[in-house]
Write a structure and sequence with these properties.
Layout lengths: L15 E3 L4 H9 L4 E4 L14 E4 L7 E4 L4 E5 L4 H10 L2 E2 L11 H6 L16 E7 L5 E4 L8 H4 L8 E8 L1 E2 L2 E8 L3 H6 L1 H5 L4 E6 L8 E7 L15 E2 L23 E2 L19 E8 L3 H10 L1 H4 L3 E9 L14 E8 L3 H15 L5 E2 L9 H6 L4 H11 L8 H7 L1
Parallel strand pairs: 1-3, 2-3
Antiparallel strand pairs: 4-5, 5-9, 6-10, 7-8, 7-9, 11-13, 11-14, 11-15, 12-13, 12-17, 16-18, 16-19, 17-18
């Protein structure tokens, strides 16, 4: 039976599939392999996880979650999903700084591909990584942590699976906190252009949803921490209307799948994601694409995409605009620059979507837009490579840890050497 990713946009071609029950089993598999890749929860939309050798799921590894209060960190096994980690952390009185829109994704997979949430001061999820346990090409288990802070760790955290198979991660944690979520509708697009910084600063995490039609965006989701100062602006001052019933960002989908709204405070892990862990967020009938560009180009980039609205909207389910803080991770789409992320959830019609993405990429190219590693894009490797100042350093790190390219595949080898 063919194995496909979550959205059924990629059928894995690996001739061998493994689910090791222990790290030692994993080491044995890797030591006898010529080509190997780790498979997370299958939420990438391209071929980044595939291989012509051994495809390895870590879902059966013991689900370890070990809190170190003194170090303000947690050690988590790679197959654990963010929703599972967050629930356990909250039960112990701790939290992560941020979460993505889906709690269903694995910690290791999300970090490896630069997945992010939202917030002017919030980095990509991998920004919380303080250490990695990784099985190398020889089958050895090594730890990369603060002792390698400058030379190795920033290059190893977002590595697209190209350095080895991560079995565990150490993440920074903080005391648990409460979040309220307010949804607004009908914010004029002109207000987004004129007051972009104020709008994205209206809460701890802010998402703007739009269909690129008409004179207003569809919704703005504002997530505010109870222990932090509130944003200085009320979006109603700019013409938005507060929602009086729960909403789903995707038209036609049930709000019952979504986290609590209407300003009712709740635990951080039940508000920062858009969707609840105990519900499938959608049918998977979609293709996702996303581009991160320097924040200073936000308004010009939004104008460029808005001009493509008539071309985009027939293939669009919804688009989301978020902000991401700069980091020092070599392959992070937000490396060394505060960023704006423009995300597209599109209909599952690859033949129609690919030409559209080429148009979107041409419109965004003047703004040095970096595509999300785990989404669908058509940008050529030479263009992508020029956007990453530390790419040569990563290639050297890869040559050191995996000189024969065991953990590569067609996608990885094209984009990171």
């Amino acid at each position: 039976m063919p194995r496909v990713n979550w959205a059924d946009t990629h059928t894995f071609t690996a001739p061998r599939f493994h689910r090791p029950a222990s790290v030692s089993d994993l080491q044995w598999i890797v030591s006898g392999s010529v080509r190997a890749r780790a498979l997370g929860t299958g939420h990438s939309f391209n071929a980044i996880a595939d291989t012509d050798g051994d495809l390895i799921s870590l879902a059966d590894l013991p689900p370890t979650i070990e809190v170190d209060s003194a170090a303000a960190s947690v050690k988590v096994s790679a197959g654990v999903r963010y929703g599972e980690l967050a629930g356990e952390l909250n039960r112990q009185g701790y939290a992560l700084a941020n979460l993505g829109s889906l709690p269903h994704i694995s910690v290791a997979g999300a970090c490896a591909t630069g997945t992010h949430g939202s917030g002017d001061a919030n980095t990509v999820l991998a920004g919380s990584v303080r250490g990695l346990d990784i099985v190398t090409a020889e089958g050895d288990l090594v730890t990369i942590d603060g002792a390698h802070a400058e030379q190795v760790l920033p290059g190893a955290v977002i590595a697209l699976g190209a350095l080895g198979i991560v079995t565990g991660l150490t993440l920074a944690i903080e005391p648990t906190y409460q979040v309220r979520q307010d949804v607004y509708a009908g914010l004029p697009f002109a207000a987004v252009r004129e007051h972009f910084d104020a709008i994205t600063g209206a809460g701890y995490s802010v998402s703007i949803f739009t269909s690129w039609q008409g004179d207003a965006v569809d919704m703005v989701w504002v997530k505010s921490r109870a222990d932090r100062p509130a944003g200085e602006v009320d979006l109603r001052e700019y013409g938005a209307v507060a929602a009086t019933e729960p909403r789903n960002p995707v038209p036609g989908m049930s709000a019952g799948n979504c986290t609590g709204q209407l300003g009712v405070p709740g635990p951080w892990h039940e508000r920062l994601p858009h969707f609840r862990l105990d519900f499938t967020p959608s049918s998977g009938e979609e293709i996702q694409s996303e581009y991160l560009l320097p924040r200073q180009h936000a308004v010009a980039a939004l104008d460029a995409i808005n001009d493509l609205g008539p071309r985009i909207s027939p293939l669009l389910q919804i688009s989301e605009i978020r902000t991401v803080a700069a980091d020092d991770l070599w392959l992070s789409p937000a490396y060394a620059r505060d960023s704006v992320a423009i995300h597209f959830t599109l209909v599952r019609d690859m033949l129609a979507v690919l030409p559209l993405l080429a148009e979107v990429e041409r419109a965004l190219q003047p703004f040095d837009a970096r595509p999300h590693w785990g989404k669908v894009f058509t940008t050529q490797p030479d263009i992508v490579g020029a956007l990453y100042p530390r790419l040569a350093d990563f290639e050297q790190l890869r040559a050191t840890l995996d000189p024969d390219g065991m953990f590569g595949n067609e996608f990885v080898d094209r984009y990171v050497g």
